[in-house]
Specification:
signal; TPR-like_helical_dom_sf; mainly alpha; single chain; two-stranded antiparallel sheet; Outer membrane starch-binding protein; about 525 residues
């Protein structure tokens, strides 16, 4: 296994690595007349695995691997999981000529939509693998106690993160904390939303002190104390536990994270797992031995004139909002120019075919659409393979969440200080004095979408939590309509969450469908 890029999905060196999703008991080979049974060395069993540190790390790798989807495919991650999490938001417009996520974007999906089903499968695959680790690793004699503690803590962090997907996406889900093999226990009921959030908090609180502050270079990308603190702070924020959120996020702010000088370095591969990174989905771009471990955003978002596929675009509302994010000269800020490619004298984008940045004006007549996303458009080599990681939580997000908690705790001046740290990095003029209500609106409809546009699992779930919370100022539907989201008229309250996948209801009669579906 390549230790530098430990989150590889293809762990296929001979058959001995084909365990990872679920360990099965394999038959033993009999040696003719003397009846001596010899274990097949090429087949992993429940007793032959879980013996060495390498085994434990392989299982941990597989648990991280579920971030890419249950099948470990880049296509599942980008065209199912990402699409399902992002396309409903007001910052993104899907290409209506493409089928990917079209019904989700139009709020016309059914219970058979594949995107939510793949989120469900990936989450429970990761949870099942984490549960195996929590059961097996503490009993492994070959590991030091410190190694056990770290691996167990990472498994708890990952289990919490996968439940975060489920709690925010489906709300009403089974809560599984043991690795089940008994058929009688494989058809669980749904837990209450409170029970799931309580488990998320418990896992993160237990993981945090056992996680490392940082990992050696060869293990960069594994969860750290900062990642657990940040996710726990985010979990508190989603539940409007403002005091807890402020305290926990303040701990992250006090750590050694920092904003990158160059906003674009968060997305072009120049600072993977760097000072601003708190947790990322790892991609290596490796093509050796038949691997294809790339991420494909550079194709998904790029103009056809640049060799891209044009699957999604920034919404007009987002572009208009970004145009108000100005520097002292009255020009759009750095984060605007590095987030979108649009009709502006200073706007340029990297062309995979030309191998250099091209001004908008040079290609305007060749473009099929007036505006494009620019994040992750950088390409790693001439063959268009891209190994750039995808951010889940970065420090700018933490500063904005911290500011939100401060504001809701009636500490608006302190909140403005944190927001201005983020704005200063991109040379946006600082905010002045504002009321609590005005700053709340500024955070919700400018600071977070402008800084974090199209980033994984952020905008839609911000809209979700603000509607579900006591501080709701407008419904999701009102926001979508006000921001010109196509087909927002189709939105009803049932679309606040995904339906429980029909495939799961057909298997498990103990599950109840979400309201309205």
């Amino acid at each position: 296994m390549d230790s530098i890029k430990f989150l590889k999905i293809t762990i296929m060196k001979k058959n001995r690595y084909i365990l990872i999703a679920f360990l099965t008991i394999s038959s033993l080979i009999s040696c003719s007349d003397d009846f001596i049974e010899v274990a097949n060395k090429e087949t992993l069993t429940d007793s032959s695995f879980w013996q060495t540190e390498s085994h434990a790390l392989q299982a941990l790798t597989a648990t991280y691997g579920a971030l890419h989807g249950a099948d470990g495919s880049k296509w599942t991650f980008f065209e199912e999981i990402y699409v399902a999490m992002a396309y409903r938001g007001d910052d993104i417009i899907n290409n209506t000529a493409e089928t990917y996520g079209r019904t989700l974007a139009n709020f016309s999906n059914t219970t058979e939509e594949s995107g939510p089903y793949n989120i469900w499968k990936a989450a429970y695959t990761g949870i099942g693998r984490a549960n195996q680790i929590l059961e097996k690793v503490p009993e492994m004699e070959a590991l030091s106690q410190e190694t056990k503690d770290v691996i167990v803590a990472e498994a708890k962090f990952l289990r919490a993160y996968y439940y975060f997907w489920l709690a925010t996406g489906f709300e009403n889900v089974p809560l599984l904390t043991n690795f089940e093999v008994d058929l009688d226990n494989l058809f669980p009921n749904q837990a209450s939303k409170t029970e799931v959030w309580t488990q998320i908090e418990k896992d993160l609180a237990e993981a945090e002190p056992k996680l490392l502050l940082d990992h050696p270079t060869e293990w960069k990308g594994r969860a750290t104390q900062g990642a657990a603190k940040a996710l726990l702070g985010k979990a508190y924020l989603f539940q409007e536990k403002w005091g807890d959120a402020e305290s926990k996020l303040a701990e992250v702010v006090g750590m050694d994270y920092d904003l990158l000088d160059n906003y674009a370095d968060n997305f072009n591969g120049n600072s993977e797992n760097g000072p601003e990174s708190i947790f990322e989905v790892q991609f290596s771009g490796d093509r050796s031995n038949g691997n294809d471990e790339r991420q494909v955003f550079n194709f998904e978002i790029a103009p056809a004139a640049f060799g891209g596929w044009e699957l999604l675009f920034p919404s007009q509302w987002l572009v208009d909002e970004m145009k108000t994010d100005l520097d002292a000269n009255g020009d759009p800020s750095q984060r605007v120019y590095e987030s979108i490619f649009f009709d502006d004298p200073n706007s340029e984008m990297y062309s995979m075919e030309a191998g250099e940045n091209i001004p908008y004006s040079d290609v305007a007549s060749d473009l099929n659409h007036p505006k494009y996303f620019k994040k992750y458009s950088f390409n790693a080599d001439e063959d268009f393979y891209n190994g750039t990681n995808i951010t889940i939580i970065r420090f700018a997000d933490v500063l904005l969440m911290y500011a939100e908690a401060l504001n809701e705790n009636n500490k608006t001046p302190e909140a403005i200080i944190e927001i201005n740290k983020v704005r200063a990095r991109s040379n946006a003029v600082p905010l002045g004095s504002m009321s609590k209500e005005a700053l709340r609106d500024q955070i919700r409809h400018h600071e977070r979408p402008v800084e974090l546009a199209m980033e994984f699992g952020i905008r839609w779930f911000d809209l979700y939590r603000w509607q579900r919370g006591s501080t709701a100022t407008e419904s999701i539907k009102t926001t979508l309509l006000n921001h010109g989201k196509p087909n927002a008229d189709n939105f009803t309250d049932k679309h606040i969450v995904y339906p429980i996948p029909l495939q799961e209801l057909n298997i498990n009669s103990n599950l109840n469908q979400n309201a309205g579906w």
